[in-house]
Backbone:
């Protein structure tokens, strides 16, 4: 039987603040265990939380960028449960009154766009991390460096109807958060992680089916695979007349299955109540406006604008907008090189430049070729000073040596294209004379030989002859 | 008169005049402790060497006239739930019997900056839960006036130490009366400031929305001096407010003629000991004699205060005490098989029965399905109680009442009847629920020779009014200087 798939996502997004949400400790990653801790984030008796204003700022940003209503008086609540990575025995989160409510996000799947509802966004603190050394049996350690690091939890409506939609939503959401500059969005390191609620129902049925919650999917691919697996698993149960158990299941990427956590997480009563140590978060219109005015252009708008303003294909715009900095780079190049160079700039960035960046696994921020350098190079191609092939050589020099003066490189290395018609004509005549037999064959219909003649000239000139001119000269002489 | 018998104000005067040194005062108090502590049991830990070193430092500060305050060189004791860096802070619990904080509470920092001499840590009910100090897991403290009677609680050590002259002043904490009730049982002055007046940073939390740190002293002026040193905004406590701290000492002597004092009829209801009622009524008459106008008022939701308090305080406590799990610090049960067993046994063995009772009550009140009926309802009633006071302060400047329905009771009298123990807090609890400042001061003795306390309550952040009324009464009544008889020489 065919079922309608219903998916809702809960995303935890780690915020890129300098300090933790309730104390002054650093949020930097990779320090020695418990180096970034103090009495507050280790839950020492008597220590009290004080809210980091930057976290509220970031939450408002996230809310505005996803069309949420900003709640003027949101409240922190305690979520009570015991676990060694949770120093206070409760997590400070938000419950009844989160900072953002009822937003939405546009996604696009196979050319169709769709709006996914966002139920709420709330602020909370992360927990620490347990360390179980392999060589010490029965001993575990706790590292509280991550405890009290700020998170946003972004809860969607159960609006997604396929794994592809879920992945599209997740990608779109991550792009937005990256554009806002509030997270590093690293899924492998867990700074952008999601849980998925999945249920099936017969088409046409109004009520939702019983859902399972999937955890532990640390890449887009794993989200897709896990949901696909889970849909199949639930369909099998329903086909056999069985009932899906409402539970939390862990995705096992190695074996490609989801596994029940066997009631470990079942029926928790978190006994939420307002945290008496923190005052309600009061946000006035002025604050919201201040944040609104500082919002950057968001990915969807940028894609549309790039395609429209520069006349580049939608697919190019999408690729360039995958990274805000890459899109900015593109715009800077076009600004300098002229609007006529937009398509060429897009190609150079997506092919040549990305090749180098990917090899070194660095982002556009670390690119040694500046927009000005690339723009100048594009100019040299456009005015015929160098060919596209030579340009790649020049680009390699620019990238490797961090030299952003391509004109000087061309001069220094004598790479300028031969565009002198007289000089080239002499060479062309020389080739025709030396290959009289081949010319005859050509004129008898073996047209493939045309490339051979051009190639001979290029060889003689070390690739510097202007290929367009050489073509013309041969055409004039041998037809 | 010995130095240890003097008030903070008197000693500050003599120190300022350089008639005496802090080392002399400190030695005098330490000598007194050596003489009587065996019988009183106020201290959980004494820091003799540290105190003398701080006294020497205070004398140097005075000699060099560097940052001298009225507290410079004054020996002060701390309730053992105020975090002291590298010095045991036990909360009178087995759970924290060996716990040494890595930081000072804000009030401790402020006392150190003021140059006070910190003597040591004082006994209390475990995690401040109790009204008799009988819930201390570590020590028994007696009432210096009658060793068969409790000193009150939870700040029993703080009150007994001042009454027995084992400290010039002390700090306690008050969640439902824990400063005022022991102060009244021990015949000293106890001040619970407005919620938000004193930073709670470093105060080991019992019920965060109710806890306040405050002074326990011999006189009202001493309470003003000590409050002055600890009050004020703190970037480490979001609930400590920025309202400016006035000059409390300057406020004391302002006339009270024309002040309206409200007498809540609900606070003189059945169950009030006739001797207590008589002493308090007499005090009210004396205030009237000083020119205050007495008006009868009503606080209609008083009857709900105890129930409301025991829902909210226990709910918060159940969460605040979750951190004592054996993972990071404090007691951990030995030889546990796995995490769950470590949690269960650590908390079963580490906490005393009253603490466990309150954790269970609070857990219940917050549980899904009960939250609306208990926690949420209690918050709503709390608002009504607060409104009672708001309305009352429309027709009076301060409220006067008894502190506790009876004088100090005997050991064992109520310990097996939690409800009777909880009900003895009926006159102090509403103040905490409303976040108000209130002060307890002596107003006489029972026939059996036990002190009786008198409570003055003011509007939020009106500590000045409170202190002013109390000071004028104190001058008039002449109870100051009455001390329990503890050593042969005093006979």
Residues:
């Amino acid at each position: 039987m065919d079922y309608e798939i219903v998916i809702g996502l809960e995303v935890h997004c780690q915020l890129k603040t300098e300090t933790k949400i309730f104390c002054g400790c650093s949020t930097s990653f990779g320090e020695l265990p418990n180096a970034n801790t103090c009495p507050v984030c280790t839950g020492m008796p008597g220590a009290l939380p004080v809210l980091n204003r930057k976290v509220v700022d970031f939450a408002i940003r996230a809310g505005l960028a996803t069309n949420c209503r900003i709640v003027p008086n949101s409240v922190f609540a305690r979520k009570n449960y015991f676990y060694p990575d949770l120093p206070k025995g409760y997590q400070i989160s938000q419950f009844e009154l989160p900072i953002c409510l009822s937003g939405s996000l546009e996604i696009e799947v196979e050319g169709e766009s769709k709006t996914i509802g966002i139920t709420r966004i709330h602020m909370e603190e992360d927990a620490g991390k347990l360390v179980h050394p392999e060589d010490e049996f029965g001993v575990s350690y706790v590292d509280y460096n991550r405890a009290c690091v700020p998170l946003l939890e972004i809860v969607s409506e159960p609006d997604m109807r396929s794994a592809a939609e879920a992945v599209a939503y997740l990608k779109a959401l991550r792009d937005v958060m990256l554009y806002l500059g509030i997270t590093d969005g690293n899924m492998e390191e867990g700074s952008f992680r999601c849980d998925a609620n999945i249920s099936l129902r017969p088409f046409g049925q109004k009520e939702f089916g019983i859902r399972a919650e999937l955890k532990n999917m640390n890449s887009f691919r794993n989200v897709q695979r896990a949901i696909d697996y889970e849909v199949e698993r639930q369909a099998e149960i329903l086909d056999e007349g069985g009932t899906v158990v409402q539970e939390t299941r862990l995705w096992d990427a190695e074996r490609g299955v989801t596994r029940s956590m066997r009631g470990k997480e079942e029926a928790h009563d978190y006994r939420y109540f307002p945290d008496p140590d923190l005052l309600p978060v009061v946000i006035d219109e002025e604050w919201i406006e201040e944040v609104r005015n500082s919002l950057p252009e968001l990915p969807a708008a940028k894609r549309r604008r790039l395609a429209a303003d520069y006349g580049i294909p939608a697919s190019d715009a999408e690729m360039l907008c995958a990274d805000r900095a890459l899109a900015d780079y593109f715009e800077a190049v076009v600004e300098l090189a002229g609007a006529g160079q937009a398509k060429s700039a897009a190609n150079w960035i997506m092919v040549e430049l990305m090749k180098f960046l990917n090899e070194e696994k660095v982002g556009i921020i670390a690119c040694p070729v500046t927009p000005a350098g690339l723009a100048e190079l594009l100019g040299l191609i456009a005015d015929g000073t160098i060919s596209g092939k030579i340009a790649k050589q020049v680009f390699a020099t620019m990238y490797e040596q961090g030299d952003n003066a391509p004109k000087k490189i061309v001069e220094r290395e004598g790479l300028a294209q031969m565009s002198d018609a007289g000089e080239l004509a002499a060479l062309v005549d020389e080739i025709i004379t030396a290959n009289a037999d081949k010319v005859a064959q050509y004129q008898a219909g073996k047209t493939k030989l045309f490339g051979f003649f051009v190639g001979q000239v290029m060889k003689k000139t070390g690739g510097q002859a202007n290929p367009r001119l050489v073509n013309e000269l041969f055409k004039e002489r041998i037809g | 008169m010995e130095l240890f018998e003097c008030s903070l104000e008197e000693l500050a005067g003599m120190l300022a005049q350089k008639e005496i040194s802090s080392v002399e005062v400190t030695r005098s108090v330490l000598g007194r402790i050596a003489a009587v502590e065996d019988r009183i049991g106020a201290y959980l830990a004494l820091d003799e060497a540290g105190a003398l070193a701080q006294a020497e430092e205070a004398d140097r500060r005075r000699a060099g006239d560097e940052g001298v305050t009225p507290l410079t060189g004054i020996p002060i004791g701390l309730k053992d739930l105020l975090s002291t860096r590298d010095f045991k802070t036990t909360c009178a619990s087995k759970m924290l019997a060996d716990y040494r904080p890595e930081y000072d509470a804000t009030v401790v920092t402020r006392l150190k900056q003021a140059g006070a001499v910190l003597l040591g840590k004082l006994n209390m009910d475990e995690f401040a839960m109790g009204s008799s100090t009988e819930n201390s897991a570590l020590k028994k403290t007696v009432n210096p006036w009658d060793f068969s009677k409790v000193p009150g609680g939870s700040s029993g050590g703080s009150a007994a130490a001042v009454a027995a002259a084992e400290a010039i002043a002390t700090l306690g904490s008050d969640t439902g009366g824990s400063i005022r009730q022991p102060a009244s049982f021990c015949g000293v002055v106890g001040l619970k400031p407005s919620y938000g007046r004193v930073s709670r940073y470093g105060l080991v939390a019992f019920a965060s929305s109710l806890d306040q740190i405050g002074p326990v002293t011999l006189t009202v002026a001493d309470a003003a001096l000590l409050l002055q040193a600890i009050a004020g905004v703190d970037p480490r406590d979001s609930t400590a407010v920025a309202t400016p701290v006035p000059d409390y000492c300057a406020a004391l002597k302002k006339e009270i003629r024309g002040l309206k004092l409200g007498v809540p009829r609900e606070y003189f209801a059945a169950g009030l000991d006739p001797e207590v009622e008589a002493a308090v009524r007499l005090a009210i008459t004396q205030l009237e004699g000083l020119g205050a106008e007495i008006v009868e008022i009503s606080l209609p939701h008083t009857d709900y205060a105890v129930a409301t308090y025991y829902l909210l305080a226990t709910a918060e406590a159940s969460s605040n005490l979750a951190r004592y799990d054996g993972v990071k610090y404090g007691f951990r049960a030995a030889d546990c098989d796995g995490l769950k067993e470590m949690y269960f046994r650590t908390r079963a063995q580490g906490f005393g029965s009253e603490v466990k009772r309150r954790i269970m009550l609070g857990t219940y009140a917050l549980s899904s399905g009960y939250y609306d009926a208990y926690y949420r309802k209690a918050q709503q009633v709390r608002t009504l109680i607060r409104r009672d006071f708001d309305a009352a302060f429309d027709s009076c400047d301060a409220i006067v009442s008894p502190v506790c329905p009876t004088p100090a009771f005997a050991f064992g009298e109520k310990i097996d009847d939690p409800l009777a123990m909880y009900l003895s807090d009926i006159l102090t609890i509403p103040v905490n629920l409303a976040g108000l400042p209130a002060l307890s001061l002596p107003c006489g003795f029972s026939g059996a020779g036990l002190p009786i306390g008198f409570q003055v309550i003011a509007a939020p952040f009106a500590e000045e009014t409170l202190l002013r009324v109390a000071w004028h009464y104190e001058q008039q009544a002449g109870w100051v200087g009455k001390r329990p008889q503890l050593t042969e020489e005093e006979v």
About this structure: The longest helix of chain A spans residues 220-239.
